[in-house]
Amino acid sequence: MEGKNQISNEQIKALLITTVIGVGILSLPSDVAMILDTGGWVAIVISGLLIIPFIIIINELFKMYPGKSFFQIGEEVINPVVFNLFLGIVLLYIVVSLSYGIRVFAEVIKAYLLETTPTEVIIITMLVAISYIARSQIEVVARMAVMIYPIIIGFIIFLVLVNLPHMDYTNIYPIFNINYKGIPKGIFTTFFSYTGYEILILTFHLSEDRDKSLKYSLRGLFTVMGIYLIIFFITLSQYGIFQLKREIWPSIAIVKEVDLPGYFLENLDGIVMAAWVMVVYGTMGPFLYSSGIVLSNVLKTKIHEVFIPFFLPIIYIIALLPDNLVQVDEIIGPTLNYLALTSIFIIPTIIFISAYIKRRKKA
Amino acid sequence: MGDSISKNLNQNVETLNSIFKDCDDVNYRFIEIGDNNKTEACLVFLDGLIDKHLISEYAIQLLLTNSKGDDSSIISLKSNLLDTLAKESIAVPGVEEAESMDEIVDAILSGETILFVDKASKALILSSRGWPTRGVAEPETETVIRGPRDGFGETLKINMTLVRRRIRDPGLKIKTTKVGRRSKTEVAVMYMEDIVNDKILKEVNKRLDEVDIDSVLDSAMLEHLIEDNYISAFPQMDSTERPDSVAASIYEGRVAILVDNSPFALIVPSTVGTLLQSPEDYYSRWTISTVVRLLRIIGIFLSALAPALYIAITSFHPGLIPTRLTYFLGASRINVPFPAAVEAFLMEITIELLRESGTRIAGPIGSTIGIVGGLIIGQAAVEAGIVSPLMIIIVAITTISGFALPSYELASGLRVWRFILMGLASVLGLYGIMLGIVVLSTHVARLESFGIPFASPYSGLGLQEGDLKDTLVKAPIQKLQLRPVFTFPKNKRRMRKR
Question: What number is the ipTM of this complex?
Answer without folding.
Answer: 0.92
